[in-house]
Amino acid sequence: MQSRVGYLIIGFLLLCLSGYIFFDAIWAHSTVPLVTSHVFAVSVLLLSYSYLHPQFKKKDERMKIIREKGMHYSFLVLMLYFIIFVVLLSANIVSLTAIAVVQILISLTIITVALCMVILSKIY
């Protein structure tokens, strides 16, 4: 996709879809499916790309720094997520299956990488 508007439209549509799935499960008094977290994560990713698209198109030194530091900070936050999950699961505070933990971590990773780059683009 080569358009900032395209990223924005598809990101907003996926955000609406994840909201619909979430509220539909709440109104039906059932558990929220984990696919909702993936749809939400992809919507955050696309909305972030719509913001970063003009800056990523330049491919200058600033964008290289933002990408490198974004991945570095994302790695540190991901390690924090791992520590939190280990503490919660080992203390039996939360009871999740292995596939649920992996799916949640995938969604958190996508969101963290996208938002780190947005925050760093504001700083640099």
Describe the structure.
With 124 residues, this protein is mainly α. It has one domain (4-123). The protein has 4 helices and no strands. The protein has helices at 4-27, 35-58, 61-90, 98-123. The longest helix is centred in the middle third of the chain and has 30 residues, at 61-90. Keywords: Membrane, Transmembrane, Transmembrane helix.
Q: Average the pLDDT over all residues and give the rounded result.
A: 92
Helix content: over 70%
How many beta-strand segments?
0
Choose one word for the global shape. flat
**Number of separate domains:** 1
Query: Ranges with pLDDT <50 over ≥5 residues?
Result: none
Class from secondary-structure proportions: mainly alpha
Largest sheet: none
Proportion of β residues? under 5%
Oligomer: single chain
Q: Mind sketching the topology for me?
A:
Elements: H1 4-27, H2 35-58, H3 61-90, H4 98-123
Keywords: Membrane, Transmembrane, Transmembrane helix
Transmembrane segments: 7-28, 34-52, 73-94, 100-120
Protein name: Permease
Key words describing this protein structure:
membrane, mainly alpha, transmembrane, flat, Permease, 124 residues
Quick overview of this protein structure:
This is Permease. The chain is mainly alpha-helical and 124 residues long. The chain has helices spanning 4-27, 35-58, 61-90, 98-123.
